[in-house]
Design a protein that fits this description.
Among the domains are: 90 residues, no CATH class; 128 residues, no CATH class. Helices cover 81% and strands 0% of the residues. The two termini are 27 Å apart.
């Protein structure tokens, strides 16, 4: 048997419906934006009396970073979206047709080059490191070898310096063809031996040459010439040879690097240091100081609310979710014993 509704419960239900209508009316687009602006102003006034440390602590921020940037697994959908979005962008016509010069400011590029060249010690150290690599020795040896042997053959030095070779050249092409390989092998062995014996000296000389020739001005000219040669080329031409498979692999490597880096001790020490610095600077300041530094004003809040809120609120209202949320919230009050007892007492 259904329990009869008491007079207090009936009154509470009527008040709930009236209150619900009142709250729903406040979510009219104009009313809501106006209300949000008024509340934003009040919050900004309140921010003048509250300190950052009263709202959140450095340890809480560190724990948030640890949980969400370090411990939490990267969803597979994130990698998939990054991959598909990159392919979508790099294959779009507007990207393919855009010249490099449209996205690189020449004056800013020049400033960047000058700033990089200002790191003298780092550039010198990098140059020395490259020159100490085995591959540099191999490349240098190969270049010198090709230059010497080509000079010997092109200048016909063999026929001039080795007795009998010049006469062989007169005997006929067939005889020369049979004799040349032996002479070539001997020349090549001598050249390789010379390079191997003198490679250390060659490296020292090449280092001195590079230090002398690669001045800041020369490097800057080379960098600007590089931009001059590329700035009118469309991005589609510059990315030729980069197919979807290579792009996907590169994106996966970026995520693999992040997966490793975020769990490193270096990253942990870095974000903890940055959080401590931030709270050292702003922790005891009132919140309005931080908001001012970030240029967050009531006008900005109103502007962004006007941009996003109307569509969000309209969707919530049309779907019935907004009414359901408000009803659940208000019902807890109007069905509480305290409210019913109060109404019962008033009715009596």
């Amino acid at each position: 048997m259904t329990k009869p509704v008491t007079e207090a419960e009936y009154t509470a239900q009527k008040l709930l419906e009236l209150h619900l209508q009142h709250e729903m009316a406040a979510f009219d687009e104009t009313c809501f934006v106006t209300w949000l602006g008024e509340e934003a102003n009040q919050l900004l006034i309140w921010s003048q009396s509250i300190h950052l440390n009263q709202l959140v602590t450095a340890s809480s921020v560190k724990a948030f970073i640890q949980a969400n940037l370090v411990t939490r697994e990267i969803p597979a959908a994130v990698v998939e979206i990054a991959d598909e979005a990159s392919v979508w962008l790099l294959s779009s016509q507007h990207h393919l047709d855009t010249p490099l010069g449209d996205i690189i400011n020449e004056a800013l590029y020049e400033d960047c080059v000058e700033q990089i060249l200002a790191f003298d010690e780092q550039l010198t150290g990098s140059l020395n490191l490259v020159m100490e690599l085995p591959i540099y020795r191999k490349v240098l040896s190969g270049v010198i070898y090709q230059a010497i042997t080509r000079y010997i053959y092109d200048a016909n030095i063999i026929s001039k310096s080795i007795p009998g070779v010049s006469s062989l050249l007169k005997i006929g092409q067939q005889v020369v063809s049979k004799t040349a390989p032996k002479l070539s092998n001997a020349v090549e062995e001598n050249v390789r031996g010379y390079i191997a014996t003198n490679l250390d000296l060659i490296l020292v000389e090449s280092e001195a040459f590079l230090e002398q020739e690669l001045t800041d001005e020369a490097l800057k000219i080379a960098a600007m010439d590089l931009l001059e040669g590329l700035k009118n080329k469309p991005l589609g031409e510059l990315q030729e040879g980069i197919d979807n498979e290579k792009l996907s692999r590169f994106i996966q490597l970026v995520f693999d690097f992040w997966e490793h880096f975020r769990k490193s001790e270096y990253f942990k020490n870095t974000y903890e240091l940055m959080v401590d610095y931030f709270f050292e600077k702003y922790g005891e300041e009132t919140l309005d100081v931080l908001l001012d530094n970030l240029e967050i004003s009531s006008e900005l809040i109103h502007q962004e609310a006007t941009r996003f809120a109307p569509q969000l609120v309209a969707s919530l209202k049309q779907s019935g979710q907004l009414e359901a949320i408000i009803r659940r919230h208000l019902s807890r009050f109007y069905t509480s014993n305290a409210t019913l007892d109060c109404l019962q007492a008033a009715n009596n």
